Amino acid sequence: MNTLLTTLKNRSFFFLWTAEIFSQIAMNMMNFMLTLVVFSLSNSSTAVSGIVLSFTIPAILFAIPAGALVDKWGKKSVLFTTNLIRAVLLIFVAFTHQNLPLLYTLSFVISIVTQFFIPAETPMIPLLVKKQQLFSANALFGAALFGSIMIAYALSGPFLIFFHTQVAFLLLSVFFLLGALSVVGIGRVSKKEKNQQTQVSLPTNLMEEMKNTLSLITKVSTIYHAFALLAISQIIVFIIAVIGPGYAKHILNIDINQFPIFFVVPAMVGVGIGIVLLSTFFRNRNRQKLGTLGLFLTALVLLLMPFGSKVTSRVFVHTLNTFLPTYLQISILHIMAVLACGMGIANAFIFIPSNTLIQEATSDAIRGKVYGALNALISLFSILPVILVGSFADVIGVGNVLIIVGIAIAIIGFARLFIT
Question: What is the pTM of this model?
Fold first, then answer.
């Protein structure tokens, strides 16, 4: 915990971290609110799919070239400019939110701008903190990222209800402005490349740079394995999002609108626990092994998720419940909350060590391109699993899909034991 506080005392990192909090909350709330607004306008799930595609397609098309360009520009200026542009675009959203085609267009443009923000944000950490603080800095960034998702998931609906839709989007524009102002507080960033463990000659042609980046990712084992872990982790998040409503309805027997509260909140608590554990007890352990441990924990949680009702039906649980007050009696929701917390811990064990590995293994001259490629590849590789999981869940059931995915993740974990 002391290492986290010491890292936050770094003025430049603190302002970068603050900028991330404002920007991520604004971006995630905007995405959730747009899905709600589009559905209310169209009453169509297909229309909602369209707005979701407006978030993801720009990542596939523009993330890699954006990363290459960010490495040529100053990351601080990119962070400031992208937040400012998104703030202005959200003002247009606020005054045109009843025009569906215009909403699609503005959402697409905002997502394009975001592709420049992403490879300028996390890759800036090694420029602001010492090497021994990288692990703690990524832990704090992970906490802000997942915390912003939780806040956005929980508050998007109430935000639209409490404020008029127009006012809600204008307030999110203010959040982006606060993010831009926070960037101003970041000190002068040195142009000196830090921790340059991977030497590459940088071509001047943009296409050559993109090919060079993809070649680097596939040939340098440290980066490749970290990429694979982060991609798997993100795909699991997408899968849970897809089958979450079905899991809530068919296994938990709760209203689907309650799923975010009963699953997302415990998961975010788990992320917090994982961050404390990593920063306190595991910060000097092998990063690859920590990521593999996160994979095994993820597999275990997925395999146990369909069987919560079987645990609560056991005689010893019924006997124990007779001695407990009503609010402490064990139910399937308690089992799920514990598993969700475990999923959050697992995510932290993957996210933090993997990001630290990438930052340690790359120089500032290529780091933006690497993170741009990561964003693009995650978006690309997640499309097929998400489509298949949804289809399989309708045919063979949510529980069976969770078991299949859990077994697949466990196999990948065992393969990593031999490969790494």
Answer: 0.71
